[in-house]
Amino acid sequence: MTHPTLGAAERTALANVFKLTHVGDEVRLGLWERLVRLEPVRDEAERRGANMLFAVLYGKEFAGDGSAAHLWAEHSTVRADVAELIPVLRRLNAVLPSTHRLEPNVPLVLHARYLGPELSAAFDNRAKSGDFRDYYTGVESICGGRYDLLLVNLHKNANVKDHLRYRDFPLSEDRFHWQSQSETTANSREGRRHLHPEREGLTPLLLVREQSKDGSQTVAFRYLGPVRPAGHEGERPITVEWAMVNAMPADLVALGRVAA
Fold first, then answer.
1. Which residue has the higher pLDDT, 165 or 143?
2. Residues 6 or more apart whose Cβ sits within 8 Å of residue 128
3. pLDDT above 90 for 41
4. 3-class SS at 113?
5. Residues 6 or more apart from 12 whose CB is under 8 A from it?
6. By CB atoms within 10 Å of each CB, which of 31, 56, 234, 245 scores lowest?
7. Residue 244 half-sphere exposure, CB side, CA atoms within 13 Å?
8. Residue 150 in contact with residue 178, Cβ under 8 Å?
9. Of 6, 24, 12, which is closest to residue 85 (Cα–Cα)?
10. Which residues pair with 243 in a beta bridge?
11. Alpha-carbon distances, residue 199 vs 2, 59, 63, 146, 169 (angstroms)
12. pLDDT band for position 1 (cuts 50, 70, 90)
């Protein structure tokens, strides 16, 4: 039961703790252990990691303007709940450590799971208002165009129109079948970015989830790392076969075959 003296922001954060249950990597869990002790962040990657936590607990706008850090320091009950959750997530969701690091300031772990606002905070990618953003499906160009996030739902919602039911699924542990937006042509800006990313000066990053919702809860994307085009066909949409730089987990390949 929520304690009657808790303020609205603390009640919101306590109600959002369950949204952290997808986390299993030591980059976040180790940082959380330090944050619950109110230790200061040590570098830019940890600052972004803290904002990833705050964006989930307090909301994109509070994390974006920095006020969430002050709320976190005041909310001992929230910190206690997160502290209790850490060993549970370590036991249930452990993500194997990886040598992959996109760049020093981006605290993403290969094959770990992330909600949209966490991705926004990880890249420090903000809306014009200064708030962190949310990501759903499709392609998001971020960091001045240096990265394209390819955000995929393997299972499409029943209410999605037929022409938007893109065929996105793993072919194997090192290949992924993907389709662009329905009006994309090879010579368009988006088409060139998909087919010639190196020439266009960007790195495509693949993020996949089985479905958008599990009941009322938003499902987190699994970060699969950089991909390279290994072949393509057609237009409107363009079908691209992405070569994985890092092999996909076997369980995701199996889920994808069901979706295909």
1. 143
2. none
3. yes
4. strand
5. 57, 58, 59
6. 234
7. 24
8. yes
9. 24
10. 175, 228
11. 55, 37, 35, 12, 26
12. very low
